[in-house]
């Protein structure tokens, strides 16, 4: 008996050794170890580095749930048209775009308009100073809380935005120059008077993969790293935003959107349908144009335009998109870049690891070690990036730490490398150098890195 | 002694097998297989992808000429020619959806030429108003008012039975502007592949390409696109109108061209697999597969043939078939899903194993 055991052990060892020696040269390791650094999305990581790498459904879905995901996928890409129509009626009357996927192209990051182009894949939040009944920003009379830059034919759009940039040259400590462009936004072609004290915040369409995993992180895990008054004195706050949950009629932790102003994926999706496409739904049953001259009370006055089942299917779709796998994790430059990322303190907010909560009702997102590179909290990013428009508890200079997973695939999926909330950064290094406020010391550290070190940190970011 | 010998065998056998499975890779590193990987990518990007976009542009040029003729002399013969030319473009376009990656996606060409549904209300509004119907006017319209399907609507009419005598002047002006816009966009995608260098990006994957840093990335991209179009046809284009029992959800309803569209979608898979498009024929994925796995090659081809046969068995227009030929539609979805599985599981695994 004992000898047999030893023999089996020898065989097993041999098998393991041989398998390892086989695998060594692979670009992507086997998914056997769920805690691997390669697997940004835990067991829901997509093994694709191509232009479709943001668009993979969770692999653990049952046939039934996969079908729900597919219906949501179809609906996410569905182009809406003016009512009445046999397919997808209800567009507008004022809107920003005609489908989810026309801003979130390939489930990725929106492209910012070129000089002189209309602001298609980004939108502008509007408000006037003050705080609404639920702590929300106060909508602008005649405009609501976002500028709809498109409208149906024979309907007047709210207006457009003219974007101009001013270039300035700065220098790394080693003397190499870099440029940052500062955007300026001017409202044009407004259909009616805009208050002079309007607050304007540009927002680029953010990638939509991995959101179900972020939603599955418990409030307690997020709040564990909160330090709004910086009691530990490390210069990093981490402030939770508390926002209004319409379905449950209470104030809850916000976690989605550039300022963490949406509490749940359902509300995020429903708000976007209503505000961006002009599609009413059970959470937002009123047209955004109601009370404005563009509003036509005749069609759809009785009920809302999007069936609940379709709204839920789109929520499920964005909840069940996998995160792309890391690339080149063990390449020496990437390893060096990771050390520098930590040395500069980037990981204090762009946290390397989060763990999702146990969720017996949906095992796909349950208890996963994930690497989104965010703490889902607000941080003061300084005056350079400030939009000066408060959003619930987020001040005019606070932004939610943006997740960095998949960021290295932006060029491949979306054919551009414009980053930050308004796409002003033309590449990752510019995005780093725009950091200020709490992130100022990290930025200064990066600016003192040597050229090789800067390249290493970029290699690391591009491997995410 | 005997038991020890057995144990030795037990230890030795798996070791030998594993060593062999390791070695297999090394054998394939022979120059022939290595250069084959490069040749296949070069041929696919030139003979299939780039060629298809050149063909798309050329056929759009022909449609544009036919529409010009129809505009000048509005008779049924010229209308019939324009319809034939529209269908001819669709043959190329639907096949090219088998490789829907790169510029056509990233530059948002696809939504600007192939958005469905058409916004009928807006279209009627445009026909009634007095805006000058120029190419730049059409270019500024929403996606649901330009591209293939508004052209289809104008050529066939809602019921599919329009005659030349029914054309209004505004309809002809809109049609001309629509085809000019289509010409501009198909030229754009052709140019990005040719002078823009995307063809080289794909061909030189893993050796200087910024788009594809390894050959494996390029092959995975190609196989993913092949599998995706199966999913698109089986799970969306066929399934949604079928499940809803609603012919108004059909994709090319005016020309009653849907089954032909679906068939060309599936044909695109074999085009890129075999590395051939129209008359140009080069090396394709099949050459790569046949080097190591003849049974996989045979399986892909037989599943593909079964999917095409299942689509061919539907012998009435799709909008009608969803109520009268349900078992045939179900069979087509099943066969396309089987092809999907082979591509997604086995072919993908093959390229992951043999291409780095």
TrEMBL record, chain A:
It comes from Mucilaginibacter segetis. This is C-type cytochrome. SUPFAM superfamilies: Cytochrome c. Residues 72-228, 332-464 form the Cytochrome c domain. Gene3D superfamilies: Cytochrome c-like domain (1.10.760.10). GO terms for molecular function: cytochrome-c peroxidase activity; electron transfer activity; heme binding; metal ion binding. Keywords: Heme, Iron, Metal-binding. InterPro entries: Cyt_c-like_dom, Cyt_c-like_dom_sf, Cytochrome_c_Peroxidase/MauG, DHOR.
TrEMBL record, chain B:
Keywords: Signal. It is found in: Cell envelope. Its main location: other. It comes from the Bacteria. The keyword Transcription does not apply. GO terms for cellular component: cell envelope. Residues 51-342 form the Imelysin-like domain. It holds the Pfam family Peptidase_M75. This is Imelysin-like domain-containing protein.
């Amino acid at each position: 008996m004992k000898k047999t055991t030893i023999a089996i052990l020898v065989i097993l060892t041999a098998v393991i050794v041989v398998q390892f020696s086989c695998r060594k040269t692979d670009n992507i390791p086997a998914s056997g170890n769920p805690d691997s650094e390669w697997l940004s999305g835990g067991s829901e990581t997509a093994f694709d580095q191509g232009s479709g790498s943001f668009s993979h459904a969770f692999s653990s879905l049952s046939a039934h749930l996969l079908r729900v995901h597919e219906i949501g996928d179809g609906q996410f890409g569905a182009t809406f048209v003016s009512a009445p129509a046999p397919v997808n009626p209800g567009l507008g009357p004022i809107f920003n775009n005609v489908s989810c996927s026309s801003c979130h192209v390939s489930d990725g990051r929106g492209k910012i308009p070129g000089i002189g182009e209309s602001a298609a894949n980004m939108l502008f939040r509007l408000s006037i100073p003050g705080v609404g009944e639920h702590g929300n920003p106060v909508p602008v009379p005649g405009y609501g809380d976002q500028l709809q830059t498109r409208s149906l034919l024979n309907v007047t759009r709210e207006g457009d935005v003219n974007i101009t940039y001013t270039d300035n040259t700065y220098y790394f400590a080693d003397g190499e120059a870099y440029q940052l462009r500062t955007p300026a936004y001017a409202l044009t072609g407004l259909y009616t008077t805009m208050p002079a004290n309007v607050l304007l915040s540009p927002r680029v369409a953010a990638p939509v993969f991995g959101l179900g995993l972020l939603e599955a992180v418990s409030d307690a895990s997020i709040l564990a790293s909160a330090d709004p008054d910086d009691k530990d004195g490390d210069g990093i706050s981490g402030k939770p935003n508390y926002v209004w949950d319409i379905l449950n009629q209470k104030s809850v932790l916000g976690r989605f959107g550039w300022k963490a102003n949406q509490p749940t994926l359902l509300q995020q999706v429903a708000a976007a349908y209503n505000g961006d496409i002009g599609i009413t739904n059970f959470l937002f049953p009123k047209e955004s144009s109601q009370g404005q001259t563009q509003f036509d009370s005749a069609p759809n006055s009785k009920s809302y335009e999007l069936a609940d089942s379709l709204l839920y299917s789109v929520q499920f779709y964005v909840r069940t998109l996998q995160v792309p796998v890391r690339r080149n994790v063990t390449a020496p430059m990437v390893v060096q870049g990771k050390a520098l990322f930590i040395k500069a303190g980037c990981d204090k907010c762009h946290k390397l690891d989060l763990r999702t909560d146990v969720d017996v009702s949906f095992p796909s997102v349950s208890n996963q070690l994930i690497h989104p590179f965010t703490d889902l909290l607000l941080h003061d990013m300084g005056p350079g990036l400030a939009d000066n428009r408060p959003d619930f508890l987020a001040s005019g200079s606070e932004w939610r730490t943006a997740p960095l997973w998949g960021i290295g695939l932006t060029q491949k999926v979306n054919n551009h490398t414009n980053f930050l909330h308004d796409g002003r950064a033309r590449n990752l290094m510019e995005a780093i150098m725009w950091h200020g406020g709490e992130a100022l010391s990290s930025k200064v550290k990066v600016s003192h890195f040597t050229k090789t070190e800067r390249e290493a940190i970029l290699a690391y970011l591009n491997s995410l | 002694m005997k038991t020890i010998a057995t144990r030795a065998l037990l230890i030795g056998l798996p070791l030998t097998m594993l060593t062999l499975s390791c070695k297999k890779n090394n054998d394939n590193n022979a120059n022939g297989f290595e250069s084959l990987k490069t040749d296949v990518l070069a041929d696919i990007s030139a003979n299939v992808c780039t060629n298809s976009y050149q063909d798309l542009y050329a056929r759009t040029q022909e449609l544009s000429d036919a529409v010009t003729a129809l505009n000048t002399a509005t008779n049924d013969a010229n209308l019939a020619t324009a319809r034939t030319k529209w269908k001819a473009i669709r043959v190329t376009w639907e096949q090219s959806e088998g490789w829907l990656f790169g510029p056509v996606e990233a530059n948002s060409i696809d939504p600007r030429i192939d958005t469905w549904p058409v916004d009928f209300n807006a279209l009627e509004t445009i026909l009634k108003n007095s805006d000058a119907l120029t190419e730049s006017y059409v270019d500024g319209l929403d996606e649901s008012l330009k591209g293939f399907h508004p052209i289809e609507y104008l050529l066939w009419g809602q019921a599919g039975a329009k005659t030349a005598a029914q054309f209004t002047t505004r309809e002809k002006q809109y049609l001309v502007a629509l085809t000019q816009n289509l010409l501009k966009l198909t030229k754009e995608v052709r140019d990005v592949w040719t002078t823009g260098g995307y063809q080289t990006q794909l061909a030189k994957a893993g050796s200087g390409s910024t788009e594809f840093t390894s050959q494996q990335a390029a092959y995975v991209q190609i196989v993913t696109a092949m599998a995706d179009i199966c999913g698109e046809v089986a799970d969306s284009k066929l399934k949604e109108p079928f499940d809803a029992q609603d012919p108004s959800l059909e994709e090319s309803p005016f020309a009653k061209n849907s089954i032909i569209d679906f068939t060309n979608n599936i044909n695109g898979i074999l085009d890129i697999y075999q590395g051939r498009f129209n008359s140009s024929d080069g090396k394709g994925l099949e050459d790569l597969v046949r080097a190591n796995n003849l049974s996989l090659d045979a399986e892909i081809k037989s599943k593909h043939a079964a999917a095409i046969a299942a689509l061919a068995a539907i012998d009435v227009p799709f909008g009608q078939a969803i109520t009268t030929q349900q078992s045939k539609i179900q069979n087509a979805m099943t066969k396309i899903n089987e092809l999907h599985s082979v591509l997604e599981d086995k072919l993908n695994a093959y390229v992951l194993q043999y291409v780095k």
